[in-house]
Amino acid sequence: MTPNERISLRESLPSGVGEQEPHRTEQDASNLDQADSRLWESNRKRACVLAGSAILQLPIWGFAMNYGVFQEYYSSNWTLQGSHQVTGIIGTTSNGVMYLSMPFLFALFTRRWARRRQTAALCGAALTCISFLLSSFSTHVWHLVATQGVMAALGCALIYSPTTLSLGEWFNTSNRAVAYGVVLSCKNIVGSACPFLLRVLLDRYGFRITLRIWAAVAAGTSILAIFLIPTHPSSISSSTHRTRKIPWQFLKHQTFYIYSVAIILQSSGYGIPQTYLNTYAHEVTLLSQTSATLLLTLFNIPGIVASSFFGYLSDNTRFPLSATTVTSISAVSSALSAFLLWGLTSQGSMALLVLFSITFGFFAGGYSATWGGVINELEREAAQRNEAVDTGMLYGLLNGARGIGYVSGGLAGVPLLKAGSTSAVGSFGYGTTYGPLIIFTGLSSVFGGWGLLWKWKKLLHLV
């Protein structure tokens, strides 16, 4: 049969004869299209969640991370009633109240009130803005403590807790630490950009107008970002049925307490430079206000890279490192920075203070990015014991431990500062009023990595 005859024969056959049935291929293609559509939609929502979480770092942490600018301004332009030394506890109290309230807020919004996360975050934004607005009318120092240190902090925690729960649910175990690291990097971008902005506003308008401007900025950014973060469908579906109890079995295991104690110790020293570095640079090393503000910016800039870097170390599969190893790298390095750089500064030695700000800001600033690895390790332990674990609640409790550390460090800072004014403990920075604070910062930082010693001890017992 010639080719032309074969073509004629094929054309004369009824439709479908001699061909494979197409319905299976079309169905497969339809399924693939639906899968691609679902994947694209899921990736779009993840991108929105990541973007919203990044934007929220400004209203949540912009004031707390840069309170040192206000502290230096208050000390130079005191117009309120009461002792200006009390203002030293506002920054650490703000951080402490935020972190201490997180375990309770995480518990509420993990299951029972999952559907109300966006509403709660909007209420937190309203409380934050009202608090800063009220703060601008302060006439006594305790007004600042109540509005800036407590009320605004509670509002920020109410924004942070439900939105961070959603972030942790949209990103699974394989990329959770990286997602946390990216968001924490944005937190450090806020800490790097805001000092000069706040300094300019304070110098031009005074603290009252500056606080009103900040209230407006917090309102605009928080409302926009909150609507970018939808609650994960799994939480909504679980909340429509009988509320499941939060699994608390991890509280029976030693590992959780090892990391919690390490976080408390590290955090108690981390807030000290944030609060006192500006005044130290201005009073002890006699730097200008601009140079002192620059130090706070340099303190936060390295955290942009450090948070993503330590998040990568925690999730990295090519050269896997345990959570204890990663936390120890951060803790020991930041302690050495405090002892060898901040402690050895003297009058006019801006170079050492700059080096301290960069190195301490990098290693200490990346410490909280290791928590993704800590949670992954606790998840693996729970799986080995065939136990359930709620990662959102676990993350909230780790933040609570950080809050205990901040409050402890803030309360210790005032008597340590008084002790330094009455007796010197050496030369250089150690011999100044801030000497005890420097020693406290270094010791608390190094103990933030004590989990590695516990792990070695455990391994020696097994041998």
Automatic annotation (TrEMBL):
Keywords: Membrane, Transmembrane, Transmembrane helix. One of its GO terms (molecular function) is transmembrane transporter activity. It is found in: Membrane. Belongs to the major facilitator superfamily. Monocarboxylate porter (TC 2.A.1.13) family. Residues 1-33 are annotated as: Disordered. It is a multi-pass membrane protein. This is Monocarboxylate transporter. GO terms for cellular component: membrane. The lineage of its organism: Eukaryota, Fungi, Dikarya, Ascomycota, Pezizomycotina. It comes from Letharia lupina.
